[in-house]
């Protein structure tokens, strides 16, 4: 519907442009949105105000002319209105909303699915923490965000590869080795280091000890945390060491040289990243002949490009913000022409009763994501992290997370789903597809009986779901999913408190309302699946 309205508005504005009634002007981008206050309709556009700035005309007059042009052309719109200072509001027809219930029941979990990303191959790299210790709550935040985003990509038709880049051959591995050997250059501490010291402390070379320890940490700690605790599946675990061994770094440097994008200065080889927007050029080969860390980035970028991705997404910690410009410059220099974006994951504080909390020292001086999940559960940890945009600093409220009541937003949403399942179990007739696919039940459902304000409000909220999925697939604002789940749960709880679903005296109305709550169950369960948490049938 959102796209249809935008097409309709654009057609009207183009006609005004062609007829030169408003003079010469360039048609701006036309968008519609959901009003924050539902009394202002189901969709709204500010196109008249945008045009008013260009045309130096009264936005209310422009809006009136647009409404006269489009009124009656959208059969699913019951009413259009112009409100100060120039918004055009659209109100959906009840028939459209009633039919939406049948559509959801017919499509089931496929509701909201699209082919927006058909033929587009996405590489989504996230977490990629160094194999030097347990994953932190910051790694957990980035992991849940990346995993949920991939789920949205897949629902939107993209071909997605979840990737973890293992930094198993750099300076941090040597630091890990010193820590395992417990010498003067030790950096890391914790019970896991003590265990690794028992196993590899006899080795004399810090790099050898570090590589052995890193392999153990990856297999025995990180992968177990990711798969068992965080419930994230990676398609590819790419080794920095293998990138080196397969000559990607050497080949990337030769490609950059062949494009005359390198130069020598101060005994080192540099890449002209400033030609592509970076704030300074970057060293590839240091004056001592050793490859710089950035050279490894070159090899990995070439590896991704040669795998034929159209979109690259990389999740980075807050301390890696400075990498964005250089990596974008590198991708352009190596010939990548697709969409390349970054998700910066800001720091997390664990607080309880207003004070910073520590749960254990098993991982040294940090709180591990394992500890947090063990404390509050996977669903709560994931939902809480996804409630906040990753680029904002976050205080994880441990007191609220430990609540086993509807004060906890996760339980509040899950309880809505469980309550719906309870209602459906109590139905005197099982819900099975009707012959026409229009409704569910033993016969045809009269969905036109759904006229109550709370019923229509529920349907309007479900109607937003496909647009939300499409929006997140483009904006990557994954935090909007849990907020939508809460809003839909709000609408359902409000509906349930005022409307009796099963009425033995009115089986026809009961049938329509059972269809409605089943539609809510479908949308709520699918939203929770995309977030990555359970949709329980009993609580």
List strands and helices in order, with pairings:
Blueprint: H1 2-19, E1 43-45, H2 47-55, H3 59-70, E2 77-83, E3 87-92, H4 94-107, E4 121-125, H5 137-155, E5 159-166, H6 171-181, H7 191-200, H8 206-229, E6 236-239, H9 240-245, H10 248-258, E7 262-265, E8 268-271, E9 282-285, H11 293-306, E10 311-317, H12 323-333, E11 339-345, E12 348-352, E13 355-356, H13 369-376, H14 378-386, E14 394-397, H15 398-401, H16 409-425, H17 453-463, H18 465-475, H19 480-498, H20 507-531
Parallel strand pairs: 4-5, 4-10, 5-6, 10-11, 12-14
Antiparallel strand pairs: 1-3, 2-3, 7-8, 8-9, 12-13
Helix pairs in contact: 2-3, 4-17, 4-20, 5-18, 6-8, 10-11, 13-14, 16-19, 16-20, 17-19, 17-20, 19-20
């Amino acid at each position: 519907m959102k796209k249809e309205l935008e097409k309709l508005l654009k057609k009207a504005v183009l006609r005004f442009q062609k007829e030169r009634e408003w003079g010469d002007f360039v048609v701006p981008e036309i968008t519609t949105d959901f009003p924050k206050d539902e009394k202002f309709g189901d969709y709204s556009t500010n196109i008249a105000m945008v045009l008013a700035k260009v045309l130096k005309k009264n936005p209310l007059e422009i809006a009136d002319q647009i409404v006269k042009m489009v009124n009656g052309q959208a059969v699913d719109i019951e009413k259009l209105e112009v409100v100060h200072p120039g918004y055009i509001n659209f109100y959906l027809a009840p028939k459209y909303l009633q039919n939406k219930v049948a559509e959801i029941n017919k499509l089931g979990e496929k509701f909201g699915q699209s082919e927006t990303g058909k033929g587009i191959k996405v590489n989504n790299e996230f977490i990629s923490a160094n194999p030097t210790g347990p994953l932190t709550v910051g790694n957990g935040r980035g992991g849940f965000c990346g995993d949920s985003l991939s789920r949205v990509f897949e629902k939107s038709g993209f071909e997605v590869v979840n990737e973890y880049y293992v930094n198993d051959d750099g300076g941090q591995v040597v630091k890990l080795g010193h820590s395992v050997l417990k010498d003067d250059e030790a950096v890391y501490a914790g019970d896991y280091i003590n265990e690794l010291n028992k196993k590899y402390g006899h080795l004399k070379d810090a790099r050898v000890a570090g590589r052995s320890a890193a392999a153990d940490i990856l297999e025995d700690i990180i992968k177990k945390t990711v798969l068992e605790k965080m419930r994230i599946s990676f398609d590819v675990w790419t080794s920095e060491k293998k990138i080196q061994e397969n000559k990607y770094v050497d080949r990337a440097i030769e490609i950059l040289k062949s494009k005359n994008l390198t130069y020598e200065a101060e005994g080192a080889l540099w890449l002209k990243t400033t030609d592509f927007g970076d704030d300074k050029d970057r060293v590839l080969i240091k004056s001592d002949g050793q490859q710089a860390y950035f050279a490894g980035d070159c090899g990995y970028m070439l590896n991704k490009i040669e795998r034929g991705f159209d979109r690259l997404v990389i999740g980075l910690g807050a301390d890696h913000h400075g990498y964005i410009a250089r990596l974008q410059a590198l991708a352009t220099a190596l010939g990548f022409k697709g969409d390349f974006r970054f998700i910066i994951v800001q720091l997390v504080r664990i607080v309880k009763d207003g004070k910073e909390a520590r749960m254990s020292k098993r991982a040294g001086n940090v709180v591990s994501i394992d500890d947090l999940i063990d404390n509050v559960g996977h669903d709560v940890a994931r939902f809480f992290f996804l409630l906040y945009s990753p680029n904002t600093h976050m205080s994880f409220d441990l007191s609220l997370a430990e609540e086993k009541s509807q004060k906890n937003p996760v339980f509040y949403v899950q309880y809505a789903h469980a309550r719906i399942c309870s209602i459906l179990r109590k139905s005197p007739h099982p819900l099975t597809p009707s012959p026409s696919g229009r409704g569910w039940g033993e016969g045809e459902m009269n969905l036109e009986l759904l006229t109550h304000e709370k019923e229509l409000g529920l349907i309007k909220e479900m109607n937003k779901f496909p647009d939300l999925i499409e929006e997140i697939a483009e904006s990557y604002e994954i935090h909007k999913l849990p907020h939508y789940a809460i809003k839909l749960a709000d609408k359902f709880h409000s509906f349930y408190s005022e409307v009796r679903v099963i009425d033995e005296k009115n089986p026809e109305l009961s049938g329509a309302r059972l269809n409605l709550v089943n539609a809510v169950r479908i949308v709520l369960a699918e939203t929770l699946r995309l977030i990555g948490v359970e949709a329980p049938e009993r609580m």
